[in-house]
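Exercise (ungraded).
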Amino acid sequence: MVRIDAKSGLGTRAIHAGNAPDPRTGAVAVPVYQTSTYAQDGLGKHKGYEYARSQNPTREALEENLASLESGVHGFAFASGLAATTMLLHLLKAGDHVVASNNMYGGTFRLFDQVFAHLGMRFTYVDTADLAAVEAAIEPATKLLYVETPTNPLLTISDLAGIAAIAQRHGLLTACDNTFATPMLQRPIEFGIDIVLHSTTMYLNGHSDMVGGALVVKRDDLGTRLRFLQNAVGAVPGPWDCWLALRGIKTLPLRMERHEKNAGDLAVWLAAQATGPRGPRVIYPGLPDHPGHALARKQMAGFGGIISLEFPDLETGKRFCEALTLFTLGESLGGVESLVTHPASMTHASVPRAQREATGFTDGLVRLSVGCEDISDLRADLVRGLAASSGVVVAAR
Ligand code: PLP
């Protein structure tokens, strides 16, 4: 009998938490419970499973696994990352106010700005790396401080313990989108954050073959409310997608090591190559000139697999993206295969230009999700991109 506990290492928990052998057959892989309902023995007599929106054993396995990795007490899986964000906001009501990062995934901004604002919630967007700005934005109606760290796509780092301390002083709820870091590199609940959010579509699944989301909470009362909302709203994932995420997570520690090593080495190399007026500025929290470098060192176990490159204009960035042949041009991130994205026209198209540019997010910004391929091949591809974009011929050493 495999036994693990809270003291087991993260690598052990990634493989075993929630993944106990099937009690009926001993199957080592959690079965895909592909059922919509469950036979009941009599009125009000059942085995804890009534209907698959309410309970599904494959989903429960994933939820237990995520709660363990994020040092939380309950996990909840949803149909997408944005479905998870929707559930988080359903903890609030019309009239409530939220202070949120001014740089975050464009779909999250769209959900706040074009869905929940229409239902009567209000949002103030600030640079959450600036704790004084966060505190100054708090109003009597504020209920939630919402941060993404590192942010998508500028990789801004916010001080999680500092955010949690502000929230405690003002009696507010805190949530952190931990999609970019994953629990391998950062566990917000350990810094006092109440709720962790994930797009499991990204690193957790890691194979670009499903869409999903999750919330993990640090308190029972939040768990009780979210369990109610998960069933009442019904934005649940199917069992196959839960199973794919659960399988993906078993190799998350290994994949994150590789993402991190490839991205770290490429960022240093790019920063050394990409000089001259047409070369890109390299944004990566692992580089000592990144404004959040010292904080990232303190609160993260690594700097992650995303590098952003700021080209001088759209045309140069476009030439770079279109010249790459190993980095696939597409939306998403965190898979084993490297991707290149142009956030202004793709993932963040719904963020108004003025708002983007106020945070330093220009049309020339290109985001690389560095995958797990051989670094020599990735470097050779970037050489191709740099040559096409800036005319700079560099050596792929
Ligand atoms: N959070 C972050 C940081 C993201 O990058 C994304 C999607 O790109 C989401 C949330 C939303 O996730 P999903 O696409 O699974 O709805």
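Further reading is listed at the end of the chapter. For now, observe: The CA atoms of residues 283 and 299 lie 18 Å apart. The chain has a mean pLDDT of 96.
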